[in-house]
Every structure is written in C-alpha cells, then in structure tokens.
Design brief:
Blueprint (H helix, E strand, L loop, with lengths): L2 H7 L7 E5 L3 H7 L5 E4 L3 H6 L9 H14 L4 E5 L8 H15 L3 E3 L7 H9 L4 E6 L15 H17 L3 E5 L3 H10 L4 E4 L7 E4 L1 H4 L16 H18 L10
Helix pairs in contact: 2-4, 4-5, 5-6, 7-8
Bound molecules: 3-methyl-2-oxobutanoic acid (KIV).
The site of 3-methyl-2-oxobutanoic acid has 11 residues, from strand 6.
C-alpha cells in the first residue's frame, strides 16, 4: 500500500467511497471533484465500441483512454483496468501493468478474479504496484450475466476469494452483481473496502459506469440508476442548432469575425 491507497482504506466504516468510470478527459475532470476513485474501466469496450464482450478490449485502447483521463483527474485515485489476456501469468502481468502505469501515470490497476490470479496479484504488489480486486460477476470470463451468490458453492468461493485477495495485498475489491447478504458478509469480514456495483448498499462504496448514470448509454440493468437524461439534452441542443442554421440565425454577428 502507499499513502493514496491507505487513504481509501481509511474510509472503511467512516464514509462511503464514491467511484465512477471515465474514458476521456472532459468527463474525468467533472467527476474528479466528487469521486474518491476514477476508474478507466474496460466497460469502454461495450459502451464506446459496441463490442459484445470486454474480451476484445486491447491494452493499447486502455492506455490511450487512460492518457486522456489522466489529464482530467487531479485529486481522485485513478485506477485502470487490465484488459483480458494481458495478465495470464505473473511475468506478463508485471510487464503490462508497468507499461500501463509508466505511460498513463495512473495510481493502480484492477484485475478480475480470485484464487486463479492470486500469484499474479502477489507479484504485482511485491513490485510496488497498487492493485484493486474484482469479484462476483467477472465480465472478462463470464459465461452468463446472472448475479452471483445464489448457490452455496458460489458464495463460499467468492467469500474465500475475497479473503485471498485481501491477503495478497489489494487495497479494495469491486463486488459486481453479488447477492446482498453475501456482499454484507464480505464487507464485514475483510478489513479493506468493498466497492459495489449491483451488490447492495452494504458495500463500503459504490461504482457506476458514468455513461449509464447520465443516461448516455442505452442499458437496462437493474443496478443502474439514471440520474440524468443527457441523451435528451444533447438531442434538444442539436435540434436548436439545426433550426438556427436553417433560419440563418447561427452564426450571428457575435459568433462571427
Ligand atoms: O469496466 C468497468 O467499468 C468496471 C466497473 C463496472 C466496475 O469494471
């Protein structure tokens, strides 16, 4: 851990942690003022590129978007997702995590999985790389998009994985689509914060995809709350612009040289 990740840990049981995604500078600079963590999530694959799975997201895509986000993030902890097939073994993970951090100047990386990536996470942390865990629904390897924690064996494994990740030294764990009572139990037994998405208010913090929150991305998942309808606002603005252009009202003298 370093002072920045310890600051996130110190929030556990004191105040809720706020985390949102950003894929570029302008959104990053707006949300940075209100977040503890800004995540450059590989959800950008589906949100921006219409990919059917995050498996298609490349290391370069993550790096380019993270470079843009870095320009907007001044105070929050900036975390970048390691995309699919970039951390298949400790050596590969270390090389790619170092590349992400050195080029983007992010503060930490996020990896999906528990027991299977234990040694990989340990290697990164031994090399002073700050790591955020991700358990529950794991989009990079998911066979279906159902919530996790209904079956006893699933509950036991997620619980075990959360303890393992804590032992490995991650500074927090995202719990995605995890049944409420399981999220509550995990949050109680580990000393690092849980950040939920579709994992109930029992978690120490919450993360949402910003494009979902502002109503820019068409998604109907149960865990999404749309706080704004930016799609409508953009549409209304564009209609007004079109009308002004048609009537010769834009540009006026004020907007001309
Ligand atoms: O890729 C992403 O945006 C994420 C969040 C949904 C947690 O991993």
């Amino acid at each position: 851990m370093n002072k920045d990740t310890l600051k996130i840990i110190s929030k556990k049981k004191k105040s809720k942690i706020v985390c949102l995604t950003a894929y570029s500078k302008n959104i990053a600079s707006i949300i940075d003022k209100h977040c503890d963590i800004v995540l450059v999530g590989d959800s950008l694959g589906s949100v921006l590129y219409n990919f059917s799975t995050t498996k298609k997201v490349s290391l370069n895509m993550m790096i380019e978007h993270a470079k843009s986000v870095r320009m907007g993030v001044k105070k929050s902890l900036m975390v970048v997702d390691m995309p699919y097939n970039t951390y298949r073994n400790p050596k590969e993970a270390l090389k790619n995590a170092k590349k992400i951090i050195s080029i983007t100047k992010c503060d930490a990386v996020k990896l999906e999985g528990g027991k299977k990536i234990y040694q990989i996470v340990k290697t990164l942390i031994k090399n002073k790389i700050q790591v955020m865990g991700h358990l529950g629904l794991l989009p990079q390897s998911a066979k279906n998009f159902k919530f996790k924690g209904k079956k006893l064996i699933e509950r036991k494994n997620i619980l075990k994985d959360s303890k393992l990740l804590e032992q490995a030294g991650v500074f927090s764990i995202v719990l995605e689509c995890v049944e409420s009572s399981l999220a509550k139990e995990i949050t109680k037994i580990i000393d690092i914060p849980t950040i939920g998405i579709g994992a109930s208010s029992h978690c120490d913090g919450q993360v949402l995809v910003t494009d979902d929150l502002i109503g820019l991305n068409k998604i109907n998942a149960r865990f999404v709350k749309k706080y704004l309808n930016v799609t409508k606002q953009i549409n209304d603005g564009v209609i007004k612009f079109k009308q002004d252009v048609a009537k010769g009202k834009f540009p006026s003298k004020k907007h001309s040289y």
